[in-house]
Design goal:
Strand 2 (94-112) and strand 3 (116-124) form a beta hairpin. This protein starts with a helix and ends with a strand. Helix 1 (2-15) packs across helix 3 and helix 2 runs antiparallel to helix 3. The protein is globular, with a radius of gyration of 28 Å. Helix content is 13%, strand content 43%. The protein is mainly beta. The protein folds into two domains: 2-61, no CATH class; 69-485, Beta Barrel (Porin).
């Protein structure tokens, strides 16, 4: 009886430990029991043999990791959405899309030996700016056909963080930059290289050592309960994204031209790269206040073979079809300075934040002239300002965000801006509201509403979206989401 009782005690003690800890600590626990004279050395050996036998019997059903993998995490999320998009023309005609949609994202993050890490994420939809699939959106094959459904690689990256305060990443990755949906659609996972540096200075208090997420990104240090200290995070993020690969590199000779856009424009024949240069700082006074600013420069080299015609953005003096047919994706004359900022604090127990973003295209004069509007070089700015209340962490939590935004016609890259609130279009200004509520620790609902009108009435509303109207007189969006994360 005593032997069986000892076996049960030791088994229960190690049952809730990680497998690696069990193998290392069983012997130490038995040795401690022998030293305390709770069991004899012979009984310890018998228990050790029993545990080894039980471990061998159950190991066949476990997931075995290769030796270089030191940590692995499976994660994901799913969403079901009801959506209405409505656009109005200058003649008060409307186009509306009402649809039910879903998305699924399933990822694997791992830490490897010698400071390496990796990540892979699978997701629905082939679009780089959306992971949504529309119910019943099959062109052939009858009802419930899976022709437009599929699973694709959304992220695939490898990284290294063996240098102090530095993280290096290569592949298709989550956006490494501090930004906003005014400039970057959050669904876009850029491809290329990224270099990140971050160092934390702690003052008038102390904090726990820095920790890292599964993909190697430094997580904020946890402040001690007295919250007497404050800290300053300084960071720098640099990126070299492959925007568009030209293939072949020299299709029609070095002086090839095109008659697109009504002229004889030289066709570039080099790969397009988007380069990002960001430095920033975040001040945190624990449990009370934080403030962050992250000035950034974006510049482009080359034009690839997809975005090599000058951007025009539509024209209100043309028919809708002719205006839509104008080039909506060109990346010529873009040198963008962007400065997102955020301040957060608590009003009692209520988290609050103010957020803003300002961007200007320093080559706006040239971009406007190339679009045929040399007198519209002042349409180079983009602004966003908003307020947020609450936060989403556990069941019963809620969050509300309200913002105003304006994006001038020649201010930003139309291929990167968010697809939701303004339907991927520029030269619009308006408001957006989101309301979230946690039904459980893993499930929440979101209601979203956006309304925008044309900002400059002498220009079109450039950019490609789901509403084929250019220029838009106004645009409205409503979404109701049910989300789950795991």
């Amino acid at each position: 009886m005593r032997f069986r009782a000892v076996t049960l005690i030791v088994t229960a003690t190690v049952a809730f430990s990680a497998p690696a800890i069990r193998a290392q600590d069983n012997g130490a626990l038995l040795d401690l029991l022998v030293r305390k004279k709770l069991i004899t050395a012979q009984e310890a050996e018998e228990v050790r043999a029993e545990l080894t036998k039980e471990s061998a019997a159950t190991s066949a059903g476990k997931w075995k990791l290769s030796t270089p993998v030191t940590e692995l995490e499976l994660y994901g999320d799913a969403r079901v959405r009801y959506e209405i998009r409505n656009g109005e023309t200058l003649s008060d005609d409307t186009q509306q899309r009402e649809r039910e949609r879903y998305r699924l994202r399933l990822g694997l993050r791992g830490i490897l030996a010698d400071d390496w890490f990796f990540g892979v994420r699978l997701e629905t939809s082939t679009s780089s700016r959306s992971t949504n699939v529309t119910f019943g959106d099959e062109s052939s094959g009858g009802p419930f056909n899976k022709g437009s459904d599929g699973v694709f690689v959304g992220q695939a990256y490898l990284g290294y963080k063996g240098f102090k305060d530095i993280t290096l990443t290569a592949g298709r990755m989550q956006n490494p930059l501090v930004t906003s949906l005014m400039v970057w659609d959050p669904d876009i996972n850029p491809e290329g290289l990224a270099e990140q540096w971050k160092h934390t200075f702690t003052f008038a208090g102390s904090s726990e050592p820095a920790t890292y997420s599964k993909d190697g990104i430094a997580l904020p240090a946890k402040e001690k309960a007295d919250s007497s200290g404050w800290k300053l995070d300084l960071f720098a993020n640099f990126a070299q994204f492959v925007y568009d690969d030209a293939n072949p590199e020299n299709p029609l000779g070095p002086r090839a031209t095109t008659t697109a856009n009504g002229g004889h424009q030289l066709i570039p024949n080099t790969d397009a790269f988007l380069l990002a240069w960001q430095v920033g700082a975040k001040f945190t006074f624990p449990e009370t206040l934080y403030a962050q600013i992250a000035p950034t420069f974006y510049n482009y080299t080359g034009n690839g073979d997809t975005f090599n015609i000058h951007y025009q953005g539509g024209d209100p003096h043309l028919s809708n079809s002719a205006s839509v047919a104008q080039n909506q994706t060109g990346i010529n004359s873009l040198l963008i300075f962007d400065m997102p900022a955020e301040i957060g604090w608590k009003l009692g127990d209520l988290p609050m934040r103010l957020f803003a973003d300002f961007a200007v295209n320093l080559d706006g004069d040239d971009r406007a002239a190339a679009a045929g509007h040399p007198n519209k070089g002042d349409q180079r700015y983009a602004y966003q300002v908003g307020v947020g209340l609450g936060q989403l962490k556990k069941k019963g939590d809620w969050q509300v965000n309200v913002f105003w935004q304006r994006q001038d016609q020649f201010a930003l890259d139309p291929n990167l801006v968010d697809t939701e609130f303004w339907d991927s279009k520029l030269n619009l200004e308006g408001v957006g509201v989101t309301v979230d509520y946690m039904l459980s620790d893993a499930v929440w609902i979101r209601l979203l509403y956006g309304y925008a009108e044309r900002a400059d009435r002498a220009l079109g509303t450039g950019g490609l979206g789901d509403i084929a109207i250019n220029p838009l007189k106004n645009f409205q969006l409503f979404q109701a989401d049910l989300n789950v994360r795991f």
